[in-house]
Amino acid sequence: MLGRPQLFVNGAWVEPVLKGSLDLVNPATEKVVGVVGAATAEDVAVAVTAARAAFKSWKRTSGAERARLLHAVAAGVRARKEELAALEVADCGKPLDEALWDMDDVATTFDVRRLRACWA
Questions:
Q1: Taking Cα atoms as reference points, which of 80, 118, 75, 114 lies closest to residue 100?
Q2: How far apart (Å, rounded) are the C-alpha atoms in residues 80 and 39?
Q3: Percentage, residues of the chain above pLDDT 90
Q4: What value does the mean pLDDT take over residues 92-109?
Q5: How would DSSP label each residue in 48-86?
Q6: Cβ 31 vs Cβ 6: under 8 Å
Q7: Of residues 77, 72, 73, 101, the one with CA closest to residue 89
Q8: Do 13 and 35 fall within a single domain?
Q9: Which of 9, 14, 28, 65 is deepest in the core (most CB within 10 A)?
């Protein structure tokens, strides 16, 4: 099964306030393939507060450190490309080839060195 009936907030998995969940349904097969936590307005408010605090820290992070962190995200996506693409197929019902291309796009989004080449 994909997912978990929790929310990822402030770097940790937490129970939704109302402990609700939503099924993930593969549109190609109409089978339940996983579950995710169902957020309420209160859950969203907590997440927004955490995101604002994280942004304050991110603003103080040097450009070099930001680039290193973003490159690490890109490398992580590339290292797990096939696994992430398979999850995308199950969640969205899209063809595997398209999901693999999507993972390349995701990695490129975070790869600062490749972005510089696009901007040049």
A1: 80
A2: 27
A3: 83
A4: 95
A5: HHHHHHHHHHHHTS-HHHHHHHHHHHHHHHHHTHHHHHH
A6: no
A7: 101
A8: yes
A9: 9
